[in-house]
């Protein structure tokens, strides 16, 4: 979602898995995809097991020697989470599901090149059928995720527990940490002129006027013109409450509107918006919005490049340190006051494991740098925020591959200890809930040796 608070997005621990759509094929024809398990109202198809393995590998989750029984039990657990989430009324709105689904589809389109390739991969007739099918799978995954987060939300860990966890690991079984780097960056964004901003404001005001005075469709304008790609296909729709993790400016406007009102244009870090408040349902707001992001001129982009080249020259000539230059000049407010030091978005650790970096552009920038060396300026196109900017990076320190160390790798050890404690809490929850839910297991999977008593013997 384009204007979610970024720190909240980083906290999400599980990626979405689109499982259950791939149909196994044989040379003679299509294999019948039978039901092999039921948990509550949720079924498990045989094809989901192989598809789950593919998705786990795609998410870089180690699969080791996982058997079909192991994968089947994972699916049983996922269905149990979703089943209990509905019983406990953990909220998952259609708008939330649609937004998340759209984001995933957009990313896949970027990866493979077209929506038609995705439709073919999932063996669907058209985009509408694809979206209808994916909607139910996304909803189930969101329910599963919400239930897991609910189970572990109060689990914390103390420094003493972290120490005990580390000391219990046999010395010859300590995990190896790959080559790592601490990276700092300086970002220079092209300046958006007052004229460019005013053009966007004027355009939003024209849209508002057309809706109010001429009866034009706000939905259609959002589909056609919004820069928030995640909500475009749904007419800019979101359903939010005061706890929904949207940026402050957006919520402040939304919660001061009357039902049926269209806001004045207002600015957030993502650009300029107008909101149409469709319905107030107690503390819940159903709204649509249009986001327009001002685009810099070619001259402004060239000026940004010139500015960052000048900053780099001063750093290389020892006129200013990289950290001081970041503090005084960088446009990245999340890193500038920390010497420009970046954090791995998955672990929030300032060390990046080189061979496991998600940002491949960043990897190519730093892979051949020495400690203290400053990269050449690179133009970054941020597809999520619909903006471009220049950045330079440096490596503050390199860490060679080594056995994990309690002091040197404390953040990693703490995350490992917390994950273990959370997993134990989830296991206790599953063991208890298995006895309460309707569960039916068919065929070869009745012979599996499960960790939990799914067969209720």
Automatic annotation (TrEMBL):
Pfam families, A to Z: Rotamase
Sorted UniProt keywords: Isomerase, Rotamase, Signal
Signal peptide positions on this chain: 1-24
GO MF terms, alphabetically ordered: peptidyl-prolyl cis-trans isomerase activity
Taxonomic superkingdom: Bacteria
Entry-linked InterPro entries: OMP_Chaperone_SurA, PPIase_dom_sf, PPIase_PpiC, Trigger_fact/SurA_dom_sf
Domain PpiC, residue spans: 178-279, 282-377
Classification via PANTHER family: CHAPERONE SURA
Protein name: Peptidyl-prolyl cis-trans isomerase SurA
